[in-house]
Design goal:
By secondary structure, the chain is mainly alpha-helical. The protein has one domain. Helix content is 69%, strand content 4%. The chain has helices at 3-14, 19-40, 54-69, 71-94, 97-123, 128-131, 139-150, 155-161, 174-178, and strands at 44-47, 50-53. It has a two-stranded antiparallel ribbon. A hairpin with a 2-residue loop joins β1 and β2 (50-53). α2 crosses α4 and α2 runs antiparallel to α5. The radius of gyration is 20 Å and the shape is globular. The N and C termini lie far apart (65 Å).
Length: 187
Amino acid sequence: MNAFFKRQLVDYVEYHRDPWNCAMHVFGILSLFLAAILPLSLWPVHALGAYTTMAPIMVLPVLVYWLLLDAALGTAILGAAVVLLSTAAMIVHYASPVTVWSITAVLIVIGVGFQVVGHRVFERRKPALVDHPTHLLLGPMFVMAKLFIALGFRHDLAAIIERVPPQSPRGPSRYVEEHQVEPLPHS
């Protein structure tokens, strides 16, 4: 793990303390990644006698960036990217362009929805992306780091991610306050 990634991760964690927000990010990031590569998978490229699409070409620089930040996490993300690129290729192969664009639109709504709900409902804090646009590329690394920690790997990452003190209690929800029932007296 390089020092730049460590600093970025420490800052990112401040915006992602709630476990439900983190869970929402898993689904949101996967949806948004697939939404980003689906239309690019419609665009064929023939170069040096090989056939591909713009999707892997456009994903390659960010994969290199992730590998440079942390080789193990970057390699795991590369594996996930291969699965998602294959999924996009399969969708493009069997669906019309209109269907591909429709699926893309739905995935964007779902992905953004998960992110918004995670931050508004669970975290109750604006997304890190608002303050730090570079965190757009850090989300997948954070999600993969959480997976590695959950599987018992990367104690160095656990020391960074889990050392952040839990948020102060948020208090009861408005629903509880508005609908609180007085206890019955004991007879």
